[in-house]
Amino acid sequence: MPTGQSPIATVMAFVDVGYLTAGAQAHLRLPTKPRIDGNMLWLWATSAQTGWRHDQLLRVYVYDAEYPSDADEYPGQRAFFDMLAAQPGIRLRLGHLIRRSPGSRRAAWQQKGVDTLLVLDLVRLAQARAFDTALVIAGDRDLAEAVRVVADDHARRVNLFSVEGSTPASALVHVADYHEVIDDLWLRRVIGLEPDRADQPAAP
Q: How far apart are CA 130 and CA 123, in angstroms?
């Protein structure tokens, strides 16, 4: 390394897909919740960390929740997850969905375990010094203490990103080093509504 040049910093991204897609649906007024495009998510993370000149994106952790195997939605979702997990640079981490109030008008799917997986990975990898900077797309207050531990106890930088109209919990914003709203063009790309630009780098 040339004298005076800063060392290369390692960047990892941690993405709460439920927060991202629900926010995109509401903000862009989509009729259904979209699915993410793994390659575009990688390109977004590459773009988001280029302000720190010597950073290198190592991996994007994606957190979602899986339907039970007997649900009608399971086969299609499973096929999508298999495709997503096979994409270079993407690490898929899955919680599960449970039916709340089954058989009633208020029946709905509720995700479980997703925040726990994100917290465990964020803290574990920070403790191992596997990254210098974390890019986090999330909004839940439950993540605030994990972000504080990563930033204060392990001296890792945490950059928080949110979706327009889906304001993250103030406690989460306060413990992050930096907070930015994902612009609409990148948001549309990440959910597959906008084509990629030819000058963007590909995933490894």
A: 10
**What DSSP letter does each residue of 135-185 carry, written as one string?**
EEE---GGGHHHHHIIIIIS--EEEEEEBTTBPPPHHHHHHSSEEEEPPHH
Contact 144, 119 (CB under 8 A): no
- Chain segment 140-169, per-residue pLDDT in tens: 999 999 999 999 999 999 999 999 999 999
Choose among 150, 199, 142, 153: nearest CA to 176: 150
Contact predicate 50/35, CB 8 Å: no
**Mean pLDDT for the chain overall:** 89
| pTM of the entire predicted model | 0.89
d(CA 181, CA 48): 11
User: b/e string for 60-89 if b means 16 or more Cβ within 10 A?
Assistant: bbbbbbbbeeeeeeeeebeeebeebeebeb
The strand pair at 55-66 and 9-16 is best described as parallel
Question: What is the Cα–Cα distance from 165 to 28, expressed in whole angstroms?
Answer: 10
Which residues of the chain are under the pLDDT cut of 70?
1-6, 50-54, 101-107, 195-204
List domains and CATH numbers for the chain. Answer: 9-190 (3.40.50.1010)
Task: List pLDDT tens digits, range 92-120.
Answer: 999 999 877 665 666 577 888 899 999 99
